[in-house]
Every structure is written in structure tokens, then in C-alpha cells.
Amino acid sequence: MTRVRRHLPRFGALVFLLAIGYLVIAPLVGLQRLAFEDDARGYSAAFDDPDMAATLVRTAGLALGSLAIALVLGTFLAWAATRLPPRLRLLRVLPILPIVVPAVAAVTGWAFLFSPRPGYLNAALRTLPWWNHLDEGPVDIYTLPWIVLITGFGLTAFVYLFVSAGFGNINAELIEAAQVNGSSAAGVFFRVTLPLLRPTLVYGGFVALLLGLGQFTGPLLLGRNNGIDVLTTDMYVAVSQSPVDYGRAAAIGSPLLLLGIAVVLFQKVILGDHSRFVTHGGKAFRSGGRPSWVAVTGIVLYGLVALALPLGALVVVSLSAFWSGRITPSGFTLDNFRRVFQESGITDAIVNSLTTSVISVAIALPLGFVAASLLLKGRRFRVIRAAVDFIVAMPLGIPAVVFGAGFLLTYSREPFILYGTRTVIVLVYVTLMLPFATRMQLSGMVSLGDTYVEASRTSGAGALRTTTEIVLPLLRPTIAGAAALMFVLLTHEFTASLLVRAPTTQVMGTILFDYWSNGSYPLVAAIALVMTLVTSAGVFVAMWAAGSDIFEKL
After folding, report:
1. Secondary structure in 3-state letters for 211-252
2. pLDDT tens-digit series, residues 385-425
3. Residue 375: per-residue pLDDT
4. Which residues, other chains included, contact 2 with Cβ-Cβ below 8 Å and sequence gap of 6+?
5. pLDDT digits (tens, 9 = 90+) for 323-381
6. Of the residues 239, 251, 289, 386, which has the fewest C-beta atoms closer than 10 A?
7. Position 185 in a domain
8. 4 pLDDT exceeds 60?
9. Is residue 546 assigned to a domain?
């Protein structure tokens, strides 16, 4: 009995590894198996296509172009946040707010602004002398450069979060030493601050690059009809046609998998020894300069362009009977919002979205807790611990469209036929949330330390009682914040949902896409605003539960 009890934790850890391994890896393995069937017919069908080379170039161009925009803007905004006057420090939150707006809502907002003929800003630009001879334009948002620009705006908030954290870790004594030696403000920034930000810039840049490679919403809504395909939209076409070609879809997604692995390895090589960049000292970072109105202007301008403009367009279109290039306040109506809450298809999609998100969070939290506990204290199970660490990190590097295709394949045939049910949506949501559930709870456990646990065990409490009566109550703010933030991310979710949904199991993002495809633009705008309000409520709950630095904990 003693021997069995001694091996029970290892057996439990192994069962947990097998469970999450099947959840995460089985859909990917199933896809690749089909791609290699019949002498790798899937790869032949994908890469013998004469358009594949252009698709690869567009995918790389979208990722690299949006990365360049995000790095420049994100770094500037992070610097600007350190130069704000004390009474305007609240503006530091402004560059984060675009995360609140679901990508599908932001993209539709931009389309309402810059569609060649009815776009509001295009119509305004055509009143200027330079373009008053045009019947449409001058901007065409359905082109690759504008898709890159919009994607770059969307990724800027993520880079800003990383670089802002990097600024906070810089020792002010190094800045002061450079200033004492006569270096100018620009010299300090480029010779001292920027090199010290290198690890943050590399890590944040590679995260943004991975997100850029997996972009789906912008290319699908803005580029697909004009033949601007990237790998993610090609995968969507392969699994949405009849009959579904899973082998070709898997082959198309393979470069995304390989590039994700290459980026992670390259990141480790570039950073090398992290201790070379440790700069903590007795003083926290200070900008070393006077408050700058250039910084204030830059942050406000970014907020106006990246947040206020697309949201404003959504509001105007949602209040209009139809979308045209003219804004007529006298014709504003709430009929579109009434339809949102009266049409059964839309209300069912909202209920499905909320229900599946809540259920997925309820499942992901305990899975993340077990994974975090293994990563923190599972030194006895080195192989299992390393495997768990790898598996829970996979959904961060693999685009959601790949998981969507894999889940559609895995759960639409024996032994688990779940297509058309909420269950398959919940499963893919839980998979996508595993890294967030694990990372945030692991951060809370590290901050908690071992003192309370050791005191409980010394007092005679067992592991289960210590966890339920000591650890979980102390982690309550972290768990609440993780739950709220995952709820936000899931109500945003569009890519994987579009692949695994059925006509009877829609969520907010997929029903919005259907109305967009049908040309019901005022209703699209109303649904997009409802999505934004739901996610905004989730963000406020997350900040209330876990603090205003909730996003930095990711």
C-alpha cells in the first residue's frame, strides 16, 4: 500500500499529461497523417498549386510589415508613457484599449471608414481639391498594404505591453550615469535605453511576428474577395469547400508550424544568456527628462486612430438604415439593435458565445492549476514536467486556424462525432486557453511562495487540504483575473470558431461574418458593438479582480 501511495502522484501526473496531450496534439497529428496519405497527396495538392509561392510571399509580407509597424509604434508609445505629465498618467492605459475591441469588429470598422466608394473617410477625402475628381477612393482598404497597416495597428498594443514592462525593469542609475557623462537625451535613448530593451524587444517582436503569421480576420474580410490570400485563408477555403480537403489544409498549415518553431529557436539564440541584460538596481526607471507634450500628443493620436475612428464608424453604421458615404444624424435609428435582440439566430449566437466561454473557462482553470503546479513543484517528474510545459505552450505558437481545422477533423468522425454541438467549440476554446490559464496561475503561485504551504504541511494538513484551504483562497484574485481575462479572449475568438461551427451552433464572431458576407452592414455594426461591450465588461472585471496590470501578467 505504501508503495502504491508513493507512485500515485506520478500516475496522476501521467494521466494528466495524456489527457492534455490528446486534447492538444491529437488534432494536429490527425491533420498531418491525412496530409501524408496516398504518397503525400495533400502536400502535392498544396504546393503544386502555381499560386502557392505568391501566397507564401504575401503571408511573410503581412507578418513582417505588421511587425515593423508594431515595433516602431509600440516602442514609441512605451517611451511616451514614461514622459507623461503626472496629471495625465492615466493616458498610459490608452494604447492597451485596442485589445478590448474584437479583431472582427475593428476590421469591419476600418472597412466602413475606407471602403473605396461608401467609406466615410474616403468620402470626406474626395471633398478635398486633390481628389474631388474621383468617384471612389483615394484609399482602397481591400489591398495588401492597408491590410498590413491595420494588422500593425492591432499588434501595436501587444508590443507596447512588452516594452512598457521592459522600461520598468531598467535601472535608473545607468541612465543617470550616461547623463552625467554628457550624453544627450537622444544619445541616452539610443545608446543605453534601447540596448537594455533588447530582450524585451526581441521577445515582444517574436510574439508579434507569430501573431502576424497567423492573421486571419483581416485577410479574410478584406482580402479574400480580391484574391489576396494568405496561408490561413487558404486553409479556411480547403476545409470550407465540399468535399473538405483536410490533407491539403494540413499541408498548407505546415509552413506556419515550421515558422513558429523556427521563430522560438531563433529567439533563444538571439537572447542567449539572459543575465547579460539584468539591470535591476537600487532605483527604478525614470525617463530622465521633463514631461513631453509630444508624448501626450502621440498617445492621444494613436488612441484616436486605432480606437476612436473604427468604433465611431461602427456606431454611425449601426444607427443608420443603410451604409453609404454620407452621415445623416436625422436618419439615425435603433432598429438594428432591436433586430440584434429580436432575431433568434443572433440571440442564440450571443447565448452560445457567452455559454461556451463560461464553460471553457470553468474547465481551463483547473487544468491550468494542475499544469502550473506540475511546472512549479514537479521536479520529481522531470520528463512529465517538460512534456507538460511543451504541450501547454503549443497553442501560443500555433495559429488558431490550424487548431480549428484539426478539431473539425478529429471530432467529425469516429470515435467522437461532436460536429454541430457546443462541445467541440468548448474543446477548442479550452485548448486555446491552456497557456493563459497556466501562465497566470503559475505567476500567482510564484508570488505566493512556499511559506504558507510549508506552514500548513508542518501543522499536519495534507496536500488536498492545503490546496483547498490555503492555496486556492490566497490565489483567489489571480484566479478571478485569469477567469475574466480568458472570458474576454474567448468572446473575441473568431478564427477557430469559424472552422468548427455549424449552422445551428453559431457564436458572435461567426454570425457577424455571415451577415457581413450577406451585405447586412448596419446589422454587422450593431453585432460588433455588442461584442465590444461584452469584452469591455470582461476587461473591467479582470482589472477589478487582478489589478490594472492584468495584461502584463500574461
Report:
1. HHHCCCHHHHHHHHHHCCCCHHHHHHHHHHCCCCCHHHHHHH
2. 888 888 888 887 788 888 888 898 888 887 788 888 889 99
3. 84
4. none
5. 887 888 888 999 999 999 888 888 999 999 999 999 999 999 999 999 988 888 767 77
6. 386
7. no
8. no
9. yes
Specify the residue for cell string 502522484. Answer: 9
d(CA 37, CA 30): 11
Counted domains in the chain: 1
CA–CA distance, 122 with 118 (Å, rounded to integer): 7
Place of cell 474584437: 102
Q: Alpha-carbon torsion 105, 304, 153, 291, what sign?
A: negative
Distance CA 338, CA 322 (A): 15
Cis peptide before 243 (omega within 30 of 0): yes
CATH number at residue 503: 1.10.3720.10
- Print the domain residue range for 490: 333-553
Q: Which three cell numbers stand for residue 244?
A: 473538405
Neighbours of 180 (CB within 10 A): 8
C-alpha grid cell for residue 226?
480580391
User: DSSP letter string over 108-145?
Assistant: HHHHHHH-TTT-HHHHHHTTSTTTTT-SS-S--TTSHH
Angle, helices 52-81 vs 198-213, to 10°: value is 140
Residues in the chain, total: 554
How is residue 90 annotated by DSSP?
G
Q: What is the amino acid identity at position 269?
A: V
Neighbouring CB atoms inside 10 A of 231's CB total: 29
Arithmetic mean of pLDDT, 425-439: 91
| pLDDT at 313 exceeding the cut of 90 | yes
Phi/psi for 546 (5° steps) reads -125, 5
- Please identify which residue in the block is written with the cell numbers 523556427: 262
Task: Please give the grid coordinates belonging to residue 139.
Answer: 484609399
- Map grid coordinates 467541440 to a residue: 424
Residue 456 lies in a domain: yes
Give pLDDT tens digits for 258-278.
776 676 556 545 544 444 444
This prediction has a pTM of: 0.85
For 59-75, the DSSP string reads: HHHHHHHHHHHHHHHHH
